[in-house]
């Protein structure tokens, strides 16, 4: 049996490779190991009911409510129940989570959470956790890492995975890797929007690979806008972590507070957007947080790079694309609708996040789905659950999966303009029409087109999907 091929070296992909051992696998990464992985940028931490006053059922309820009551309750219950053991296992593996003087996990409060439940390593938890996992994976003899390589297409026969075509980015040569098991761990779609907190390389590569061979996708229109990206003209935009507001930072519009900062992100982002569209200047005021520069050293450094001191300055903010709740549809074992294909992390649609991700649930999901995919791929005997495939009208063959910079720029402008915090049918139809002619030659345009089509097909607002031309179906509370 050929080795499992894992595409992507963020936390989800690394967890899959680690959990597969000693099963051989090949890890494909477009840069150096962990390069371009959004999990390296996650500031908050891992949400888990570890406090004496907390329970997984409370975490599950907060996740469901923050997701506009749109998530899958069974999935939510399963993943939040696993969360405490995930944190303990990561600690056992060497992740230096912050501790209280008594040795317990120091748990932070973030928006949408009813309890302090975010285990963290400073304000750079994603990078710390991902580096620990990368070090473990790099030492495994079962893992072959192919750096500076890009998966350009998936090969199938009779509807099943038979291999991956991989391009060496240094030579341009494409090699076919035969395998009957592929795990996509390619991250989100933030790089397709002009204002994003994600790596600009996060262009939905996994969604394109899967959708072009007919894998089912769901909820691609459900993309979350983080309400407090630092608005200083940078691309991507520096992120001002949710934990700042949990620690007491407030949002001001022309000097006046206008929203409860600890509501779920969809509500806060919409409130910030409304103030900006009315011509007001919106800032985050963290000046009252005690020892703010030592508590949030990464944010302090990010702000200082743009001439701002978080202890004394007001920080200009605006919403920016942050996370994809939708993606390649998977089951509890991370299996997609294509036999031999799994998807983990942000490129997957598990049903955990509903219509709006609760803060610090993404690293949790990456670990849980990575472990599930590894167990399923290891036990794979060729059998596969029978489930519905993609909408046939959404499947477009590709003749060139490379990104033309001009096309990518056009996609980013189109999605930012017409598929942003607030949307309507007229703008979404314009986005669909502009991107449709480019879908066969550009993965970026193809995924952008899928996102716009999905948004157009859902006329009622829910969570992060806000249609100005239809009544609200459900909102977070």
Automatic annotation (TrEMBL):
Keywords: FAD, Flavoprotein, Oxidoreductase, Pyridine nucleotide biosynthesis. It comes from Branchiibius hedensis. Belongs to the FAD-dependent oxidoreductase 2 family. NadB subfamily. Catalyzes the oxidation of L-aspartate to iminoaspartate, the first step in the de novo biosynthesis of NAD(+). GO terms for molecular function: L-aspartate oxidase activity; steroid dehydrogenase activity, acting on the CH-CH group of donors. Residues 4-363 form the FAD-dependent oxidoreductase 2 FAD-binding domain. It comes from the Bacteria. Pathway: Cofactor biosynthesis; NAD(+) biosynthesis; iminoaspartate from L-aspartate (oxidase route): step 1/1. Its EC number is 1.4.3.16. It catalyses: L-aspartate + O2 = iminosuccinate + H2O2. One of its GO terms (biological process) is NAD+ biosynthetic process. It is an enzyme of class 1 (oxidoreductase). This is L-aspartate oxidase. InterPro entries: FAD-dep_OxRdtase_2_FAD-bd, FAD/NAD-bd_sf, Fum_R/Succ_DH_flav-like_C_sf, NadB, Succ_DH/fumarate_Rdtase_cat_sf. Its cofactor is FAD.
């Amino acid at each position: 049996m050929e080795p499992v091929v894992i595409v992507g070296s963020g936390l989800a992909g690394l967890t899959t490779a680690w959990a597969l051992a000693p099963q051989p696998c090949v890890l494909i990464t477009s840069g150096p190991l962990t390069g371009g992985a959004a999990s390296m940028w996650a500031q908050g931490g891992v949400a888990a009911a570890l406090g004496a006053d907390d329970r997984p059922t409370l975490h599950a309820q907060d996740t469901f409510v923050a997701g506009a009551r749109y998530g899958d309750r069974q999935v939510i219950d399963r993943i939040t129940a696993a969360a405490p053991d995930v944190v303990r296992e990561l600690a056992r593996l060497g992740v230096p989570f912050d501790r209280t003087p008594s040795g317990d996990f120091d748990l932070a409060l973030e928006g949408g959470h009813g309890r302090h439940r975010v285990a963290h390593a400073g304000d750079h938890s994603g990078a710390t956790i991902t580096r620990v996992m990368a070090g473990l994976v790099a030492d495994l003899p079962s893992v072959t890492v192919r750096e500076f390589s890009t998966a350009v297409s998936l090969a199938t026969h009779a509807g099943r995975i038979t291999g991956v075509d991989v391009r060496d980015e240094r030579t341009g040569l494409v090699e076919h890797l035969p395998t009957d098991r592929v795990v996509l761990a390619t991250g989100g779609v933030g790089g397709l929007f002009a204002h994003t907190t994600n790596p600009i390389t996060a262009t939905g590569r996994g969604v394109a690979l899967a959708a072009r061979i007919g894998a089912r996708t769901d909820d691609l229109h459900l993309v979350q806008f983080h309400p407090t990206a630092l608005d200083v003209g940078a691309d991507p935009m520096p992120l001002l972590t949710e934990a700042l507001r949990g620690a007491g930072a407030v949002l001001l519009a022309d000097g006046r507070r206008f929203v409860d900062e600890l509501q779920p992100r969809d509500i806060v982002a919409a409130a910030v957007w409304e103030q900006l569209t009315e011509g007001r200047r919106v800032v985050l005021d963290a000046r009252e947080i005690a020892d703010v520069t030592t508590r949030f050293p990464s944010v302090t450094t990010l702000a200082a790079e743009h001439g701002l001191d978080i202890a004394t300055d007001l920080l200009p903010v605006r919403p920016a694309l942050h996370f994809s709740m939708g993606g390649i549809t998977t089951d509890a074992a991370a299996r997609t609708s294509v036999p031999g294909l799994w998807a983990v992390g942000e490129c997957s649609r598990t049903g955990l996040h509903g219509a709006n991700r609760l803060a610090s649930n993404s690293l949790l999901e990456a670990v849980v789905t990575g472990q599930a995919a590894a167990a399923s791929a290891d036990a794979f005997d060729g059998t596969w659950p029978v489930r519905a495939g993609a909408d046939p009208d959404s499947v477009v063959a590709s003749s060139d999966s490379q990104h033309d910079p001009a096309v990518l720029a056009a996609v980013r402008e189109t999605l930012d303009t017409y598929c942003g915090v607030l949307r309507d049918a007229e703008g979404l139809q314009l986005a669909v029409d502009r991107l449709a002619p480019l879908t066969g030659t550009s993965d970026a345009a193809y995924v952008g087109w899928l996102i716009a089509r999905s948004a157009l097909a859902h006329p009622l607002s829910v969570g992060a999907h806000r249609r100005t031309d239809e009544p609200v179906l459900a909102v977070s509370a």
